[in-house]
Amino acid sequence: MDKSKLDELNNRFQNQKPEDVIAWFLNEYDNKVALSSSLGAEDQVLTDMVLKIKSDARIFTLDTGRLFPETYDLIDRTNKKYNVKIEVLFPDFKQVEEMVNNKGINLFYESIENRKQCCHIRKIEPLKRVFQTLDAWICGLRAGQAVTRQNIRVVEWDDNNGLIKVNPLAHWSEKEVWDYIKENKVPYNPLHDKGFPSIGCLPCTRAIEPGEDVRAGRWWWENPESKECGLHKR
Length: 234
Known about the structure:
Layout: H1 3-12, H2 18-29, E1 33-36, H3 41-53, E2 58-62, H4 69-82, E3 87-89, H5 93-103, H6 112-131, E4 136-138, E5 155-158, E6 163-166, H7 174-184
Parallel strand pairs: 1-2, 1-4, 2-3, 4-6
Antiparallel strand pairs: 5-6
Helix pairs in contact: 3-7, 5-6
């Protein structure tokens, strides 16, 4: 997609609601667009919006093998509430076995290189498989989430994967996310009520202290500038 088309779409959606953005892409791309959900608060909002617009829309998530029990429970509760089956993607067991046997079960604490290797095998590789079936993907990024995300736009070109990336909540505040969850009775992870604003794999996520950045609990031993898994390179 050329830059002029991206500018045109961003101008089109500049003052529109996230639901309008989602509806346009679901209509335009049909089964070639899907919501990639990490089961976080933003993605649960998008799940609610997407399924209200198109009850059989594609939604997928990743099971890295290191998730919180509460996250697995949320997958089940979400499926039951909306009468859907979220697609669950798994990493290649041979790659995981080789990595763990060579570098240890908790290799990610040893270096950024190790952590990024773990993210790549457990997250990026499975995503690449599903991206081969898509022309566009929807995700829950917000500009206010992290220093690495301040300049995101509603519609972007994903150079890493060669498809359109849609961020319907790009300009939403955290308050807007939680207001929507409460008003629409959207199921969410109870860890959010225990100081976990951002929830990933269990060994790489901690609760944050009052006043800390919302992403401070992710890979907390690293600098903020490196805190991406490689999926959202900026």
